[in-house]
Amino acid sequence: MYVKARVNLFFSTDFAINQPYSLSPIQSFFMKKYLVFICIAVAMASLAQAQLKVKAVCPEFYVDVLDGKVNGLKANAPIHDVRNLFPCFTQSEDESATAKCGGGVFFKDKDVFFYTSRDYIEIGPKFKGKMSLPLIGTKRNSLFNKLGNPRLKDASWDAYQTNYGLLVLYYDAAGKVKKIQLSTQNIDTLSLCE
C-alpha cells in the first residue's frame, strides 16, 4: 500500500508542480525550436539517402549489321550475357513457355530488343547508337550495293541471307528502312514476335 501511494504521488500534478527544476518561457521556446530543428534534420538526411541510387550504365550500342552482332553479342546469346553486358535494360523477361514472345531483354529508351528465346535482335527507328552500315532511313532501292539481292521479298520488308542467319529490313510508306531484325535462324526456322 505504501508503494502504491508513492507511485500515485510521483504521477500526480502536485509532484510535478513542486519540483525544484522548471524551465523559463525563454528556455522552453528554445527547447521547442531545437526539437523541431532535430526532426527536420533527420527527415532531410533520410531524404538525401533515398536520392543516392546508383544508375546502371550501359556501353554505347554498336550494331555490326554484316556480322549480326550488337557489341559483340549475337542474336542467340544467352539472356544472362545480354543482362550482364547491358545492365540498363528497361524490361527483362525470363525465357519460359508462358513469357510473351518467349522472353528477352528490352531497351525501350534506345529502341533495341533482344528476343533471346527466338534468337533475334530488333532495332527500331528511334535507335540510339552506332551501326556499321547506317540502314535506318536508307531507301530500299539503294541497298543492293551493300547487301545484294534479298532472299525473300514482300511489299513492306526484305529478308537477306547472311553468314550468321537472316537480316530482315522493314520499310515505311516512303520506302525507307524503319526497322531491322538480326537473326541467327534461317528462313524456315525464323519465329518473330507479333
What does this entry look like structurally?
- The protein has 194 residues and is of the alpha+beta class.
- Helices cover 27% and strands 23% of the residues.
- It contains five helices and twelve strands.
- The strands form two sheets. An eight-stranded antiparallel sheet has the order 4-5-6-7-12-11-10-9, covered by helices on one side. A four-stranded mixed sheet has the order 3-2-1-8, with no helix packed on it.
- The chain is elongated.
- The chain starts with a helix and ends in an 11-residue tail after the last strand.
- The model has no long low-confidence stretch (mean pLDDT 82).
Give short descriptive properties of this protein.
single chain; 194 residues; alpha+beta; 8-stranded antiparallel β-sheet; 4-stranded mixed β-sheet; 12 strands; elongated
Q: Widest sheet: strand order?
A: 4-5-6-7-12-11-10-9
Give the H and E element order: HHHEEEHEEEEEHEEEE
> What would you report as the Rg, rounded to the nearest angstrom?
33 Å
Task: Give the uncertain stretches in residue-range form.
Answer: none
End-to-end Cα distance: 84 Å
The percentage of residues in β strands lies in 15-25%
Number of helices: 5
In total, the number of strands is: 12
Principal-axes shape call: elongated
**What composes the largest sheet?**
8 strands, antiparallel
The computed structural class is alpha+beta
Mean pLDDT across the residues is 82
Query: Roughly what percent helix?
Result: 25-40%
